[in-house]
Amino acid sequence: MRAQTISKSLSVSNDLFGIRPELTLGTASMSFFQASDWHEGEKAIHKRAHLDFREDNPTSPFLTPMAAYQISRYPLMAIGTLDEHDRPWCTIWGSGEPPLSQPVAQSVIAIKSEVDASFDPVVQAIWKGQDNGDIIREEGDGRIVSGLSIHLEERGRVKLAGRLIAGALDASQGGSKQPNEGKSGSIQLVAKIEQSLGNCPKYLNKKIITSSTPKPILLSESPHLSQEALNLIEKADMFFVASAHEHEDMDANHRGGPQGFIRIEQPEDPEEGSILVWPEYSGNNLYQTLGNLEATPKAGLVIPDFETGDVLYLTGNTRILVGAEASRMIAKTKLAVRLNITAARLVQNGLPFRGTPVDDATSGRSPYNPRVRHLATEQTDPHDKSAPGEDAPVTAQLIKKTKLTPTITRYRYALADPSVLGPWKPGQYVTMDFSKELDMGYSHMRDDDPTSLNDDYLRTFTVSSVPGSLGVHGEEFEITLRKVGGVTKWLEWQHQGMLEVGIRGFGGEFAFDQTEHKTIGFIAAGIGITPLLGQMGSLDAPKIKVLWSLGIKDVGLAVDIFTQYPVLKDSVTIFLTGDESLLEQRPNEKLKLKELKALGSQIERRRLQKDDLSKVDALVDKWYLCTAPALRKIVQDWLPGKAIVYENFNY
User: What region holds the FAD-binding FR-type domain (predicted)?
Assistant: First the structure.
């Protein structure tokens, strides 16, 4: 991140946010520069990640005009520095009333914020307990610091790095009442910016920032994280990370995603530090943070709770996982970081701001967020017959497709060699690999299809045909899919006999248990009826009570199922939702509705209700469920104390 610069001396004498006017700001760089080479850590991680990186380092060795404009408007700034033991720490300061920071001279900025004056590790590293408002000045080149100025509501961010010139901390009006109660204070800090770089808006979940006064209480200092700390991590959708390249420069950046994207390994021994693992999503491929960690494998994290103001500070040793090593650690990931925590602080009400999420699901959560990826120790697909990074062990050809509704299609495949995987069982899913057909390689942004940037194109689909019932040797199987997302949309355009995809295995244990003549209850929504179909060869249909919630546009699926398995008509109650007027422009679906009624199916023209479960609960020995998570939670509330079997297909 370093660059060769042409500089001239610049002296400024003015009142900077209340700092006394005798302060001298030193030198700043002009905008004539020649980009330098990447440092050895960055080169090493580029090589490990198989990047043929020949582009110049885009980091500017001064505060660019755009960066100066951004920081004067942005309400948050993450700050990183090293403590006396050369451990990186990171904090996050902010205010709902900008400017939090602003340029005061060429490539010189001033920052003013309320802070936790007692437990914030960056405050402690810089001021070392001097909190009476006196100015501290850095000796020599000054302390290295990094920053990330960020505006979550606008999804804007800019990276900064440089040297601390001077600052002051005034916490003289505060006073702790108890040993674990800290003080709030006001900081004023001036830094020379030697690097700036604008960043893309990916993985930023929108929040509206407002001001708050810290009232810090230290809850824990154990590197073996407390349950309160684990809860904070579990709900976090972003954190900030500081890293250093030796003592030459620093980097601060953010990592974001869906809640739960930070995974935790909690040792049984309370004397051992906890371990965090997070996937490195597709970014700008500069790998500046990872380059620092490759050369100097230490990181400082700050994980804020925007709602409560609680905050978790961490520092520790890192290890970068690449390729198969990453995949073995965390699912569907080719690049990840593992942090062994060596020191931590959990502080209640330590933040000088609050953040309110933007509720609009389409614009509030980042469209680039992938699904949560679990650790292999938490959740894995034991039926994938190939090692991470290897090709699928066998292929299957699409031999037939049947459109059942405007959005649901049944696909029939034939395995090239059934002996490779062996027989599959009723109710299992198939893991299909579409990467060779759909993976377009790296691109920085893809607003037309944002989720594709982190897509491994592995999909699990329930097998909706009875095992061994199709094909001469039982090598054929069917899947019945709703068109949702890129893969299923692409499949609708494929021609039978012209598509061959990789098959990684069959798996799952979602099998109905009718031993001892048990009566089972099955609650399904829409396409969630498919696990029942794959088990029709072994079920006693009269002893099944099926409650099926179905949209009126999907009546063609019900007609197809009852035509194949007429015995199900007496076992299934369909809760048909949606007004028949929705079919006025769809004569085929309107005809299907008449056909469904003519079949004598049990139809309720309303939503599934609690009483519907209560009426049959006494007859049911065991409940099964295949719905979206929201309905699953409702059903669990309707059947308190009942064991409900469901399969999580989120591999």
Answer: 391-513
